[in-house]
Amino acid sequence: MRYCVSDLHGEYELFVALLEKIGFSEADEMYVCGDIIDKGDSSVRLLRYVFERENIHCILGNHECAFLDYYHSLLADSPEDFDEVLLKLRAYFPTDGELLDWELVDWLDSLPPYIEGDGFICVHAGIPINPDGTLMHPSRASLSRLIYDRKFKNKETVHRSPVCVFFGHTETNCICGRPSVLGYKRSPDAASDSLGSYYKIHLDTGSWSNGVLGCFCIDECRVVYVRREK
Ligand SMILES: [Mn+2]
To answer: What was the pLDDT predicted at 219?
Structure first.
């Protein structure tokens, strides 16, 4: 099975609980639509976990990009002193920064801003829409638009390309008043169990602030939630 989540924000335990709940195995694939780090206590632990699994595919969110901007500014300031750069990068994560190493930094620095799959595209915040209603190809959009787009989440933003866009960035709570995964169908009577029925799926349930992490099963078009134990 293929699954998609977004905005894990350092919630290592919640993510592992989700993988257990869905019975995630080496035969499955997981797509993570950015913002793995910051807010929660276990950013680097979570980074290491997803880095070590070949069937978990990650893209950049604005939080990864902010970290990488900081990294590149440190490199520009002291290009010779890698030990000093790594110390400063570790301090970026006050709770578990000691787990950060160059392997993880280089991996983060290599993440793509989007992934195209069979019938879907994963992006952090959104993709611009052409005047004819089709999606701009994400390779033609600016990185800042892909990771910060403000309009894509809106109900009025509809596209007619034959792909489903998975995205996060804004908590769905802000749209519908509850931490739910929001699937937008091309027509009200389209089959709920077919990916082709959906033109976008908003995944950010606000795992860090609401303690709810939702995941979309791409092959069965169903949503699975886990909740943080109080
Ligand atoms: Mn974000």
So the answer is: 97
Listing DSSP states for 130-189 in one string gives: -TTSPBPPGGGS-HHHHHH-SSTTSTT----SSSEEEE-SS-THHHHSS---EEEESSTT
| Residue 151 tokens, joined | 């309009």
If you measure from the C-alpha of residue 168 to the centroid of ligand 1, how many angstroms do you get, rounded to a whole number? 7
Q: What are the φ and ψ backbone dihedral angles of 13, each rounded to 5 degrees?
A: -65, -40
**Rounded Cα distance, 218 and 120, in Å:** 9
Q: If one looks up domain 2-227 in CATH, what number appears?
A: 3.60.21.10
Tokens of 199: 């033109």
CA–centroid distance, residue 8 to ligand 1 (Å): 10
Q: Which residues of the chain register pLDDT less than 70?
A: 230
171-200 pLDDT per residue, tens: 999 999 999 999 999 999 999 999 999 999
CB atoms closer than 10 angstroms to residue 67: 22
| H/E element, 50 | helix 43-51
The Å distance, Cα 147 to ligand 1 centre, comes to 7
Ligand 1 centroid to 186 CA: how many Å? 25
pLDDT of residue 79: 81
User: Does the pTM of the predicted model rise above 0.90?
Assistant: yes
Distance 144 CA to ligand 1 centre (A): 11
Residue 123 CA, ligand 1 centroid: distance in Å: 10
